[in-house]
Amino acid sequence: MAMMHLAQFLVHGPTYHSLAMWRHPKTAAAGYDWTRPQLYQHIAQVCERGMFDMVFFADLNYISDTYRGSLDPALRYAAQAPEHDPIPLLSYMAAVTRHIGVASTFSVSQHHPFYAARLWATLDHLTDGRAGWNVVTSINHNQDANFGVDRPPTDVRYDRAHEFIEVCRKLWASWDEDAVVMDRAGAQFANSAKVRRIEHKGEFFRSRGPLNVVRSPQDGPVILQAGTSPKGVDFAARYADAIFAIQPRPQDAKRYFDTIKGRMAELGRPPEHCRILFGMQPIIGSTEAEAREKQEEHNALVPLEGGMAILSAHADYDLSKIDLEAPMADRTEPELQRLKSRFRKPSGESLTLREVAQRHGQSVGLPQFVGTPASIADQMEAFLREAGGDGFMLSPIYCPGAIEEFVDLVVPELQRRGLVRTEYRGRTMRDLLRQDD
Ligand SMILES: Cc1cc2nc3c(=O)[nH]c(=O)nc-3n(C[C@H](O)[C@H](O)[C@H](O)COP(=O)(O)O)c2cc1C
After folding, report:
1. What residue ranges in 226-274 does DSSP mark as E strands?
2. Which residues of the chain, if any, have pLDDT below 50?
3. Ligand 1 within 6 A of 56 CB?
4. Are 253 and 383 in contact (CB under 8 A)?
5. Domains plus CATH for the chain?
6. How far is the CA of 426 from the centre of ligand 1 (A)?
7. Fewer CB within 10 Å: C terminus or N terminus of the chain?
8. Does any ligand 1 atom lie closer than 6 A to the CB of residue 232?
9. What is the pLDDT of residues 264-319, one digit of tens each?
10. How distant is the alpha carbon of residue 49 from its chain centre?
């Protein structure tokens, strides 16, 4: 089996995928303060010790009132709210590490490509070629409302995103690599013959260029993506260096994997140019029984109403309209179709709304891999054998503590099996993602 690529999922807030995290006894005992940059510096160093490809921030620009039309459930249960801006943390984390990629989500729906191209080229310089941008079109209407823009339909959002990236790429390429000559004696900083206007006039954007940032180490950041709609898949297959996917059932994960790699082949991209990382939540114990106890303790801390609030926000649909005991697999509401792969048990049987919401509060649908370090390594291997996939995006159940346990206990086991690198090679984050052994 090829080497696994590992990414650590983070949020600049109290809640990641687990609604129990901020009040878990281990989080409380560790004196967790999610507003302090030192916490994220520590996490970046731990993940670098674990030879991860990257640490990665999700980002939402809203506090959702989709569930029951009220802000109360989101605020009361910290249902992915509040979320501070993660971008400033990337520089903090890069400053105390040398190899690991530092990545964040940044939506294309509320900004102009010139601003994004400048921001990400600057971050690529500051991190010395370790910046990664998760390109999203914004998950729901709350975000667009905060920026005072109307939410276009999915297809239009992706058409706009395509053009957005094309403009960024032109701007990143508007400086040749050797444009800066720095001839102090001859009083010439840059060679203007090697810096060009882009003169972009498209359906959604106009930009004259050139960028006022010199060519960055990776020619712009690594591009990450997480789309599942047909246009989202096409966007990812065309541009992404890595994709995050939430597919709890290996058979659905395999279908997703084959679709993306198939589309990449049609576009003439080699399969290793876009890694597919499946989300999972490790729950580690020194015995199987201890791990199960930890899982029960964690899952019991998740309030159903909080799960309903996150699920409603992600679906952009108020789920209080549906009976809690209703089976979800065959629902026909258009808003629910995108999340359907999370509505079935491994056996294929439908989950009820209560079960889906509870799971969403536990892990946003990420499968929980529970057991001893060796058993978790077995489960990771088995998942990738069945699903395909290039690695995992990990999400903790408490913090600090759970990320450290994975790195100290599971990574050595994976290294013994030759499945995780034992030293970093290459310079940039793209170099790490492209490696196979
Ligand atoms: C693992 C994962 C992480 C995501 N993170 C974010 C995020 O941080 N911010 C956001 O606005 N959307 C996020 N999304 C939503 C997707 O970017 C995308 O907007 C959504 O899946 C709708 O696109 P689609 O219709 O192509 O699936 C995430 C999706 C996945 C699967």
Report:
1. 242-245
2. none
3. no
4. yes
5. 5-434 (3.20.20.30)
6. 29
7. C
8. yes
9. 999 999 999 999 999 999 999 999 999 999 999 999 999 999 999 999 999 999 99
10. 20
